[in-house]
Design brief:
Blueprint: H1 25-47, E1 78-85, E2 90-97, E3 105-111, E4 116-117, E5 124-125
């Protein structure tokens, strides 16, 4: 039987799409602050989950994830060797740790997170201009 008193740390993400927020910056900021406090209150009061208010981020727009180009074992810089395209939305780069004392090797995974382009001298993010919408997938 599982021990229901054990806990594990996770990142909790709540995404609300298709919501029209107030145009007024101050009113929108107040709404986002209220939402942050409500999420914290619900977790603490109703479920006993302790969360510091500084660990809650509520914002608008899109986000992307990235990891540093450093070895996951020793934190030294990675050497990127060869890049090979995958069959869908990105590429893999064979990589290895630059430290002579570490033997970590693997692949750096690349995904297209945005397309930037436009007319001459007007390079814009296609995500920020709402020309494309990113998809979010869990690991």
């Amino acid at each position: 039987m599982d021990d229901t008193t054990q806990t594990i740390a996770y990142r909790l993400m709540i995404t609300v799409d298709g919501t029209e927020l107030p145009n007024d910056k101050d009113v929108r900021h107040t709404l986002l602050d209220d939402l942050s406090a409500a999420v914290r209150g619900r977790l603490v009061e109703h479920h006993g989950v302790q969360v510091d208010q500084d660990n809650i981020t509520v914002g608008t727009g899109y986000r992307y994830a990235q990891v540093p180009a450093e070895c996951p074992l020793c934190s030294e810089e990675l050497d990127l060797l060869s890049v090979h395209l995958d069959t869908e939305n990105g590429a893999y780069a064979s990589t290895m740790c630059s430290s002579v004392h570490c033997e970590w090797i693997g692949d750096a995974v690349y995904r297209i997170v945005d397309l930037e382009g436009g007319e001459i001298n007007a390079v814009e993010s296609s995500v920020l201009t709402d020309d494309i919408t990113p998809n979010y997938s869990p690991y």
